[in-house]
Predict the 3D structure of the following.
Amino acid sequence: MTRQEAELIYGPIEISRTSNPTPHRGWDFDAYFEYMGKYVGNDETSPDIIIVYTDGYAPAVNERYRLPPEIPVIWLLSRSGAVDYLKAGNYGEIIMC
């Protein structure tokens, strides 16, 4: 799938600030995973994998927004990032890069 095709299917997504920010930046991934959940269950639009590049300064994804376990989630975490928030959430695989 090309980037243009992905944008046609999934559209642009804004990650929002959380109302309960972390000590640093306070981004929240729930909006993204809630949005992607709309495409699960349809063979034509369901993602095969989710890859998120982040610094890790965000709360863990709320369980109600998590995708089914058959859709792997990979967190690409910057070397200077905060791995504790993602580890605490126990959701997906974390790769430091």
In short: The CA atoms of residues 48 and 71 lie 6 Å apart.
